[in-house]
Amino acid sequence: MIPTITRGDAMIDVDTLPACPVETTLTLISDKWKILIVRDLLTGTKRFSELRRSIGHISQKVLTSNLRQMEADGLVHRKVYPEVPPR
């Protein structure tokens, strides 16, 4: 079985990713929203609402979709806290 990375609806074969780490990174975060998400997460863990507010004019649907893609690509880790209200 060939290792793959999910990118939206498409699957990327790990073998077809560029050998250059910079080019691989650009392939995985080439979307403008993903770059802003990474920028805002560099300072530490954020709640979904904090992330949405700090990015600006991004819809909930687009942010959710991008975070799911980034999680599937191994770029971010989602942690759910068993608290009310959610952390």
Automatic annotation (TrEMBL):
One GO MF term: DNA binding
Gene3D superfamilies in the cross-refs: Winged helix-like DNA-binding domain superfamily/Winged helix DNA-binding domain
UniProtKB keywords: DNA-binding, Transcription, Transcription regulation
Domain HTH hxlR-type: 20-87
Pfam families recorded: HxlR
Bilayer-crossing regions: none
Domain of life: Bacteria
PANTHER family (alphabetical): HTH-TYPE TRANSCRIPTIONAL REGULATOR YODB, TRANSCRIPTIONAL REGULATOR, MARR FAMILY
Protein name: Helix-turn-helix domain-containing protein
